[in-house]
Amino acid sequence: MTPTPTVHSLLSELLSGPEWTQRLARGSGAQRTDVLRQIASRIVFARWEAGRTPQPTDPLGADLLPIAEAMIDKHCPLIAEAVDLQLRIVVTAVELAAERGIKVSRSALSEPVSSVVGAAYVQDPPARLAPQEVAQHLLRRFTGRRERLTDDEFVTQYLESYHREWDDSPHRDRASSIGLGSDERPPFVHARRENSWQLGTDRSVCGRYRLHFIGTGRHDSRTCADEEVRRACAGFGLLRPEHRAALRSISIASADAGRLADAVQVWNNRQQARPVAAGPVDESLTLEVAAKVRVWFGCSSAGKQLTARQGDVGEYSEVLSMALVRKVWMGLHAHERDDRPALTAADVHRLLGPALDKAVPEVVPQWILEPPTDPPSTKRCNRSYAVLVEHQPLRTGTASEYIGFVHRKYGPAWSELVLTPDELRDQFPTLFTKEDGDA
Q: How confident is residue 90, by pLDDT bands cut at 50, 70 and 90?
């Protein structure tokens, strides 16, 4: 028994076909979710011809399913035409940006260009768009944007306030209680590569700031920095209580929610538009997540393959929950960064799909053998930063002065407790550049 299709699921299936691989390739400037929501969905619903018009994520009954399938099949060439136009505009904008010395990536252009193209193709016939004119207009939002603070600037301006705010925060929501990360303060700067959702709240504050500044492009550098420092010190690294409630609700969802038929019914009858409760737990959301997980294992090829390789989900339910929580946390962090409206159940449901289809198969087999651990040297990093904050002359001193200080403070085993000068220089190249004996 499979879940009832929706217009969005049918369009998602269409956009996953081989004829779309090149158009929606990584870095092309046409991200699949942007194309789905801003272009394909708008084209279909603007031309809905018969019967009741459903919402994009409403389950399609026997009366609407054939209408939706016929509409999508009929307008597939128009969707392809719109996406090809989007790609031309993105290429044009990137070329213009290079000529003018403006820093902008294709991924940053995907959403705004999709929005413009989608608005044009809502009209029938579609409004004419000149790629050069659209590109020039969109590039104005990227001009005059402040540069992101460097790691060194970020440390100098925000490290002390971060430590103060962390010490003053109550920390009632422990990340370890839901498998989201460790409970100690996150490192301020990254001690390793941070290109993975698997870190959860062990991602550095600097790494979160980078995500914010690059991801939105709408805030100046200090607005992003102020907000990320506050957010890092809040429960689960999130400011909104309903986001924290969503994570708690996911963490306690059963990995084996009874009969498959019952789970399908719960999932198909879910209430999409309702807001997520502010806490502590949204019981309805917990039931819906449990149903989705049960349906995924029972119906999807990826879920069946995971069961065939790893056995019954009851044997690794804790690892599964950890993967879902950490992947969804990234989506909720983006929700806050983008200052979107209050979280709804539909927002969480949309995050569950990629969490199950991509994140779970990626990490569960690995984590069963070796669960994720805290980032290496987190405690050593934090102790080192505290030393530099409390004893500011060390920042402009020599490596020998730093070693002498930490040796007196921590004893002969100091290098096991704090970073060495070389390790600190890897993160802050301007530290300890003065040679011993320099005036």
A: very high
Helix axes 221-232, 317-337, angle to 10 degrees: 150
Regarding whether 124 and 21 lie in a shared domain, the answer is yes
For 390-427, how does the pLDDT look when each residue is reduced to its tens digit (9 = 90+)?
Answer: 888 888 888 889 998 988 887 776 776 788 887 787 77
Identify the domain containing residue 123 by its residue range. Answer: 7-144
Q: Tens digits of per-residue pLDDT, 353-376?
A: 889 988 898 888 888 887 665 444
d(CA 435, CA 432): 8
Q: Is 65 part of a structural domain of the chain?
A: yes
Are residues 380 and 403 located together in one domain of the fold?
no
The pLDDT tens digits of the residues spanning 272-330 come to 889 998 879 999 999 999 999 999 999 888 889 898 888 888 888 999 999 999 999 99
Q: Give Cα 111 to chain centroid, integer Å.
A: 15
Question: Is there a domain that residue 214 lies in?
Answer: no
Res 376: pLDDT: 41
pTM of the model: 0.62
Q: Are residues 399 and 381 in the same domain?
A: no
Q: Looking at the DSSP assignment, which residues form a beta bridge with residue 275?
A: 344
Domain count, the chain: 3
Kindly report the average pLDDT of the chain as a whole number: 85
Model pLDDT, residue 140: 78
Q: Do 299 and 325 lie in a common domain?
A: yes
